[in-house]
UniProtKB/TrEMBL annotation:
Organism: Nocardia tenerifensis
A Gene Ontology molecular function term of the record: menaquinone-dependent protoporphyrinogen oxidase activity
Protein name: Flavodoxin
GO biological process, any: heme biosynthetic process
SUPFAM superfamilies: Flavoproteins
Amino acid sequence: MKAILVCTSVSHGNTKRIADLIGHVLEARVVTPDQLEPAELAGYDLVGFGSGIFLGSFHARLREFVESLPQEPRRRAFVFATSGFPEARWQPFTRPMVNLLEQKGFEVAGAFSCRAFDTYAPFKLVGGIRKHRPNGADLAAARAFGERLRARTDAGSW
């Protein structure tokens, strides 16, 4: 299996930590959207897309990269995110990215999110929230997510 993770991590490196951990499990490169030509994705069996969440959405740079992809049949993808707040069940912030990837021809294998240190806007005034996140439990959950993706890919059980 050949995998790659496309990650935008701009604030505190939270998402990059998660990407590096999942990438290690999948033996995958971790790149930013500007380090990759969209056509290169055709050479991968599994592509991860992740960023921090800003006002309920993935980072604009990652969204623009995915939006720029031509619509064509593709292989599998997954999404991952870090956020100061948990995903709301009635309006998950991963859903719009999953929908966009499916429109671009990907089969989306899953989504992972965890809480992370957040100093956006008003939180900066109080020194931020979730100062010790992602923590050991978050990292263990990210590793387990990567291992499940790897096991499914290795077993061909999609």
